[in-house]
Amino acid sequence: MTDLTQDQRDAFESIFSAGAERWHFHDTKDPLIRYLRDRRIHLALDAVRKLAATAIEPLSVLVVCGGVGGEATFFANQGFTDVTNSDFSQNALHVCERRDPRVKTRLLNAEAMDLEDGSYDLVVVQDGLHHLPRPALGLSEMIRVARRAVIVLEPHTGFVAKAIGTEWERHGDAVNFVYRWNLESFRQVILSQLLEAPLSIRVIRLWDHNSVIRKVVSKLGGGSLSLLAAKAIYALLSPFNGMGNNFIGVLVKHPDAISRP
Question: Per-residue b/e over 68-87, b at no fewer than 16 CB within 10 Å?
Fold first, then answer.
């Protein structure tokens, strides 16, 4: 483990040392919070379903950089029965185990996962790669470990991100550069590893400002009115998604195909 990775691990061990009650928002049933938290991952799953052209709920799922397991809980709630949450923080995994016993846990370094090729059907990361010292290596490991598909939810590069986006994140003594993706960077990492293997790639760019939107619409008193307002804001932003700050990347492998679709 490099010094940078160890610094990050130490920082997050401290962050995740608090009890499970600190992370209750992962388990909320509040429709507004659920919509804001789950909107991107629902879009990603829809893309996987279309590209795979088959039911995906029977697939085994590995969440990378999963922290206390918010995304893993999402998959369990969606009917996936074989879900594993991984992180390099043992404290985070302990919280996950207390939060949601449906979810398996595994201590893994995302840049060098101690797993065989194709160990899980679907490998997912949400806002985790940009914390790594080598984000492209993290994606390469996800591609290697995935038997069928990869989902990446991360910041998107572009003019707006460069103008107003955060460039450096700090957690205690640890610092990381906020690596931002686009179609070409995603595609090149995939093709450099899988070469001419049959596969499908889908990238979705969109706006995602959950904390800001929640503050704005909460002034309406919460409930269905606030939820409708949040959906309306994102609908108004959708024509401008081509300049959005967020990236959804989906890779589906087609091992039985004769040629690339």
Answer: bbbbbbbbbeeebebbbbbb
pLDDT tens profile 33-45: 999 999 999 999 9
Give domain limits for the chain: 3-253
Helices (H), the chain: 3-15, 31-52, 70-77, 90-99, 135-145, 159-164, 183-194, 210-218, 223-237
Largest CA distance in the chain: 55
pLDDT digits (tens, 9 = 90+) for 77-136: 999 999 999 999 999 999 999 999 999 999 999 999 999 999 999 999 999 999 899 999
Query: How many angstroms separate the CA atoms of 82 and 103, rounded?
Result: 8
State yes or no: pLDDT of 219 exceeds 50.
yes
Single out the residue of 168, 107, 165, 146 nearest to residue 249, CA to CA.
146
The SS3 call for residue 22 is: helix
**The pairing of beta strand 246-253 with beta strand 199-206:** antiparallel
In the three-class reduction of DSSP (H, G, I as helix; E, B as strand; rest coil), residue 108 is classed as: coil
3-state helix, strand, coil in the chain (%, to 5): 45, 20, 30
SS3 100: coil
* Cα dist from 68 to 27, 106, 220, whole Å: 11, 12, 31
CATH topology of domain 3-253: Rossmann fold (3.40.50)
Q: Which two tokens stand for residue 179?
A: 């690596």
What is residue 22's predicted lDDT score, i.e. its pLDDT? 80
Residue 16 vs residues 13, 92, 98, 99, 104: alpha-carbon distances, Å: 5, 5, 13, 13, 18
Contact 245, 166 (CB under 8 A): no
- Spatial separation of the C-alpha atoms in residues 110 and 104, rounded to whole Å: 17
